[in-house]
């Protein structure tokens, strides 16, 4: 069993109890000298029977006395380094679904930096089962684009349409394609895609990938990139298992969305104005 290396520096600890109180797993306690410790039976055990691996203890300590998983508190970002409310509002109001992309790639290093942020996305019971399959190279994306398109048109001739689409739905997509997504109704000519998947049957496995998709959408916006969360290509792939296998999603994994992203062809000059459409209801008991 591998230790989680929970440590409290007695010279820095002020015995405030915040780490113990913030521990969702209830596995921290004060020893005889008033120094926080982890229960021996929980050390190295992840999940409900041990540590949630949430690092709340490290994050809540006002003096940086707590370390876990060999993490140094000095390496953590501080709250004051984050976006303020107005900056977050501007980011969210200016984020748009992008269906027009430049014909160039986002550098691999930048994509990896964005993906590493997804290690912070909330997951049910903090089980952290998410996986991220990404197409880095546009040339590879173009191969997939061609395969899906050819197979989708072949299936349509047999009366088989993407997902739950009807013939009428399919014809509408064909009608829209030249003006909306020239030549690619499935992946909207995005140079990259990201498929987020989870472990079936563990925690909130159907919800976790959707939360991560929403996070990545905003991460793209913060990098000046366009992105779009798509279910249409998932519906198309559901009828072409041989092509779907190319995404390398094991049978015990779940995905329901594909994100396209890249440099937008057209920058947007301002955010939209959606005030007044939220359906808000106060609850009283």
From TrEMBL:
SUPFAM superfamilies named among the record's database cross-references: 4Fe-4S ferredoxins, FMN-dependent nitroreductase-like
All copies of domain 4Fe-4S ferredoxin-type, residue ranges: 4-33, 42-71
UniProt KW Oxidoreductase keyword: yes
Keyword terms, alphabetized: Iron, Iron-sulfur, Metal-binding, Oxidoreductase
GO molecular function, one term: metal ion binding
Classification lineage: Bacteria, Bacillati, Bacillota, Clostridia, Eubacteriales
Protein name: Nitroreductase family protein
Domain of life: Bacteria
Organism name: Candidatus Flavonifractor intestinigallinarum
Family of this protein: Belongs to the nitroreductase family.
Pfam family membership, one: Nitroreductase
UniProt keyword Cell cycle present: no
